[in-house]
């Protein structure tokens, strides 16, 4: 399949890109600046964005938009790589809120998202990424964009599993929720050394209340936004998996 360049994408896709760029303004705020940003932004637009979005609601909005695009096309849609990466970049702040236990996962996730974003001008869509590697027999090769996409997908799934465990329990501590989420989504693909380091770091996870404070959420608002993300991610995960399975590429790697 010939590569499709980003300049050919629809006006609607470009409008989503602008929206995600605006959302990303909140990503670089420190925990303290999140609380005071509503009165200290440099311009009126950032004031409005800060008033409406928390890190968690920004992520939920982004993935609901991706999900709507995919479902509208019945999964036969060439999803814009840059738009996907813009949405995924918003998730990095969620990893940061979990502390040292998930530092490796955060670094790996951010690196892979950045690599995909850098390639977006050349490849245009997720489908083109996997098609290129499939034709060159490099889908599973270390450093390939298709492999990077798989790792990003696992990172998104890790956050989803953590949210599901968070909502199904009222534990004050996140060790059990995080350990179970990691074991389900990422541990099977990490080396023994990485798994050992992650599990050792689980004791440094924030408490439930500390996590809510970092996310600038209440129990009620966090539940609402987490459910939105969980539901929106399902079609996105299915779409990514289909890019591989439709080419007879297994997913156990």
From TrEMBL:
One of its GO terms (cellular component) is membrane. One of its GO terms (molecular function) is ceramide 1-phosphate transfer activity. Signal peptide: none annotated. Pfam families: GLTP (PF08718). Keywords: Lipid transport, Transport. InterPro entries: GLTP_sf, Glycolipid_transfer_prot_dom. Residues 80-217 form the Glycolipid transfer protein domain. It comes from the Eukaryota. Belongs to the GLTP family. This is Glycolipid transfer protein domain-containing protein. It comes from Buddleja alternifolia.
